[in-house]
Design goal:
This protein is α/β, with parallel strands linked by helices. It is built from eight helices and six strands. The chain has a six-stranded parallel β-sheet with strand order 3-4-2-1-5-6, sandwiched between helices.
Length: about 240
């Protein structure tokens, strides 16, 4: 019998963790309870991706637009994130490289310090790359890359004619990493919500009508199975 790992090895997967608030509201709980449960699911699915032999996974944890949410909810999310950062040092026992995507300067200095330490402490790892997008926005990422190249060109350090896709990609948060093969969005929504706009050019989009706190390993198996039924032509025939 075929096992999900037979099809998952080497894949790069993007996951938009969506539906925490709705999950809580359906149960008469505060929205923060949904984020707590969603954080637990994040850890389990990250572990499962590693077990399946996934090459890299990109989790969309907090967008640049999420600051617009109620202060209490934002504070709870950041508290959960801080707790994860402390626990992340357990990854010293695993062969995962951890990368944080997004503008971390808006976060508390102690969190920024922990993020730097975790990235540096796992940089030598050769297994799955675990990416966590925090204060991340796809448009902002593209603007950041464009400004970086424009500044070099203005300083005479770069010939504008030399700018190609490879050079542009090297200025993204995901520099040196594989673009996602599929992007998964639970919760029934059918949009990217400013997630990996450059990298998603040829990703297969898989939407599932399950809120993130209810997401299971079996749901990921089903998403990978759906991906493997697709025919990827990359603009060809």
């Amino acid at each position: 019998m075929e096992h999900p790992a037979d099809f998952a090895k080497g894949l790069s997967i993007g996951i938009i963790m969506d539906g925490n608030g709705r999950w809580a509201q359906k149960r008469g709980l505060p929205r923060t309870a949904g984020h707590t449960r969603g954080a637990q699911v994040f850890q389990d699915i990250a572990d499962y991706c590693d077990e399946l032999g996934v090459a890299s996974v990109y989790f969309y944890a907090f967008s640049t637009e999420n600051w617009k949410r109620p202060a209490e909810e934002v504070g709870a999310i950041m508290k959960l994130f801080g707790e994860y950062l402390i626990k992340a040092f357990d990854y010293k026992k695993r062969n995962n490289r951890i990368v944080f995507l997004g503008d971390r300067t808006a976060l508390e200095p102690r969190y920024q310090k922990l993020m730097d330490e975790i990235e540096q402490g796992t940089a030598h790892k050769t297994g799955m790359v675990l990416n966590i997008a925090v204060n991340y926005g796809g448009r902002q990422e593209i603007l950041r890359a464009a400004k970086s190249l424009a500044a070099e060109a203005a300083a005479g350090k770069l010939d504008p004619e030399s700018i190609d896709e490879e050079l542009f990609a090297s200025r993204m948060y995901t520099a040196g990493q594989k673009d996602p093969d599929l992007i998964l969005r639970p919760s029934g929504e059918k949009r990217l919500s400013n997630f990996m706009l450059w990298q998603a050019a040829y990703a297969e989009l898989v939407e599932m009508d399950v809120l993130w706190p209810d997401f299971t390993r079996e749901d990921l198996d089903a998403a990978i199975a759906e991906f493997n039924r697709r025919s990827r032509r990359f603009g060809g025939v």
